[in-house]
Amino acid sequence: MKQKVFSLLLATVFLSTGLLAQGKFFTKTGKVYFNCTGGIEPIEGTNKSTTCVLDSKSGAIQFSMLMKGFEFEKQLMMEHFNENYVETEKFPKATFVGQIANNSEINYAKDGTYPAKVKGKLTIHGETRDVEAPGKITVKGGKIIATSDFKVQLSDYKVGIPSIVKDKISNDVKINVDLLLDPLKG
Amino acid sequence: MRKTVLLVVLLVNVFVLAQAQKGEPDLLSLVDDGKKEKEFITNAFKATRVINGQSIEFLGNGVLDLRILHRFGFVNTGIKNLFGLDQANMRIGIDYGISKRVMVGFGRSNVNKELDVFVKYRPIWQADGPGGSPVSVVLVSGMTYNTLPWTNPNRENYITSRMGFYNQVIIGRKFSKSFSLQLAPIFVHRNLVDSITDNNDTYALGIGARMKLSNRVAFVMDYHPILAGRQTGTEDPMSIGFDIETGGHVFQLHFSNATGMNEKAFITETRGKFWKGDIRFGFNLSRVFTIVKPKTYRK
Questions:
Q1: Which one, B164, B169, B276, B279, has least CB within 10 Å?
Q2: pTM of this prediction?
Q3: B17 vs A9: CB contact, 8 Å cut-off?
């Protein structure tokens, strides 16, 4: 009897967590690229270990990434990025908590490409700002490819640029997000 | 009995579901396996040298560092020598990072017209997370070669007499974002010394520390008390200074009693008494160039 109860409990808990996972998609290897070149020298970095979870039912979408995970062409640039600009030891993570505004227009059951509007709160360098970004969601064989290009301002996130490098670093940061989301199994 | 069981099961499930639906659902926790990755600690020091001595810091893979070092005369020689600036000793050198754990360097000082070459290896790298070491351990091995004319050309002189060697173990730790400390016992051997009473072997303990004052400025101290085999008439090299970072350069401005800019020279040839005012102004200028782009970097 006891065993039966226990297995029933276990089974239903699994079922309900399974229910929670249903319709959700995720990745841990999402790519985020940024570029804030101001002068001749390209200033750009890529993070290839961004975590993202998308709930296709509600349209909720959340990101988390370790800022230290940004890779640069130049070691010195990486050092400056971590030490002087975004202070990764003090603010290790960047997060985004948001919503696909037009989620009802996206049919996750049918292959195709859908435009998406994402709204939410982006936290970088300990500062949180509302952002809106246009994106594209491609449903293909049960997986989702999500891409987005948008811009943020360094000054909004209190990333200080010393005057000596003012013309090398642009305050406008172009951000490019590229994700391949797999279905989340509960 | 059966009813209560069913009720409990139901409640547990409702609880699980309710937890997840509450407010802004935390979707990320669904994929968080709680595993922490091993993370190597970087930027314990601004440069690969504390001031005179080697630090636990390395150049990146494929990075070349052009280093220009100056040591002026004693500040206490006064205005007639422009507080030592009339007299300049320098070393120009190139370091190169072969991998993240191995670097080599080469340089020439005008003091004794001396060449020096070293290899530096980091077997243990301080890291956070599972299996991470609390300290970094670095090994340095180098050689110096004096190219001055023989002081006594009449006797039989050997090429090997121009050589000196040093071996060092550095144990260091970045304690916090701003504070790093290292202990670095060093052994210096000179093949030829001035007189019969001098020691060929000298042992010293390097103590290096950094305290960051801001993101771009740090206070550094580099002290090498000599433990055994002191060359007659020499003092313990002591240096204090500031690391200042501007774009691609690191300036290390400091005051020191040492003239030598390689390990053999500053450990066995420092004659100034730091605490009696025999202090020199000096600077290290470092400019790095990326020669080989990292393979992992892809747009």
A1: B276
A2: 0.80
A3: no
